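Long-time lurker. I teach an intro course on protein structure, and each term I like to show students one example going from raw sequence to a predicted 3D structure in token notation. This year I'd like something fresh instead of my usual example. Would anyone be willing to generate the tokens for the chain below so I can use it in lecture? Attribution to the forum is fine with me.
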Amino acid sequence: MICVMKKAILFLLLAYSFGAKAQTLKELLYSGKLKKDSTSVIRSTDDLKSKIDTSQKKAEPEKATMAATTGDSSVKAANGTIDSATVSAEAKDSAATATNPVGATPAASAPVKSPNKVWKEYTDSLISSMKTDVLASKKVKKETYFLTVNYEIDTDGSVSITNVTASPENDYLQEQVKQRLLLSPPQLNPILDSTNKPHKVKRRYNFTITKE
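-- Reply from a regular --
Happy to contribute to a lecture. Here you go:
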């Protein structure tokens, strides 16, 4: 009788041990922790530690770290902790780069006209306007008249007419030219001295008027 009971107890222990290992094997299999090896056969007597795929254990902490990092960035954005001054500076730099790309050549400024160039353009326009009302007058004979304009350039470039003479003499023509110059004189650039400061200067300009 005692022998039968011992056998029964031993059978129960073996059954319990086999069931525990089977349960452990089942859990490892369905949890994906066993190595994927279709050529091997797993027995209840095998060491299950050698069959466990440890690569997934290493990957899991990395995923957790990545998730924690992403979550931390999201929290910072939600809480408004992103440095707005840095964002604003980067936006200004981008706008500045788009407006003025690196290596772009600045637009050349318009060349400064010389006093003689300004006077030439001015007197050409003056002569053209005088053809119908001054040169057509009988007071002006058919002739080429040489006119001299004496003037002053102020520190701001404004022009003051001081005298107008004509050769050969013609008082009517001389007076008509002088009136127009006094009414609307040309604007010149200031004259600079040796210290690079504008100063008043006296100048003269000569031009001709021809009546054909």
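Some talking points for your students: The helical segments are 2-31, 55-79, 84-99, 115-130, 171-183. The chain has a mean pLDDT of 73.
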